[in-house]
Amino acid sequence: MTWSTVYKREYSAPEVSIKEILRYARSGEEAKDVVTLAQECLEEAAGVLAYKVCFREFDISVSGDQCDLGFVKVKSKGLSKNLNGCKRAIVFAATVGLGIDRLIMKYGAVAPSKTVMFHAIGAERVEALCDLFCTDMENELGPITRRFSPGYGDLSLSMQSDIFRALDCTRQIGLTLNDSLLMSPSKSVTAIFGIKDSGDTEEKEDKCEICSSINCPFRRV
User: What tens digit of pLDDT does each residue of 171-180 get?
Assistant: First the structure.
C-alpha cells in the first residue's frame, strides 16, 4: 500500500445489537413492544443501509497536549493521551448512507416513535461499522488505540474540515460537510486512532472514559 493514497472499503451489514439500539433510543427497558418496533424498523432499514469507509495513514508526533497529525496540528489533552506513544495513526470516515435519513424524514410527522427508532438504528449501525473497521485494522496493523472523533472531550469539532480535506470524503464515499460542521448523511463518523508499537499490549480505555462529557446521555461509564 502507498499510504499517501486514500483507500475505501465497503462492508456487509455488521451484527446488530438490539440492546445498543434501545440505549440510543433512550429506552430504559427491553419491553416487548419496544423490541418489536426496533425489529420492524430494522427490517425496513436493512435494504437502504450502505456501509462505507475511507481512510488514510499518517505519521504523527505528540508532545504534551500538542498533536501533529500530519495533515493538521491540534491542541487536545484527550487526543494526546489517546495517541501517546504512537508514531502513526489512521484517519477515517464512515457512513451508512442517506437511506436512513430518508426514513427519518418519511416518518417524522406521522410516526414519532418510528422516527426515534430510526435515529437509534442509524447511530447503532454506524458505530457497529466503525467497530468492524477498527477490528480489521487491528488485525492488519497490530494493536491500536481507541478511536477519537472531533467533538470528543476537548478536541474541537472544527477538525472535521481538516479530515474532509485529508480524505476527500465527498468523492470517496459521498459524505459532505456543511458550514455548521454537520455531516450528510447524518449517520456518519470521522475519527482517528493510533497504531501502537507491536509490543504494546496495554488494554484500550473505553471511549467514554476518554471523553470528558460526563453528562452525555449515551455515556456508558
Answer: 999 999 999 9
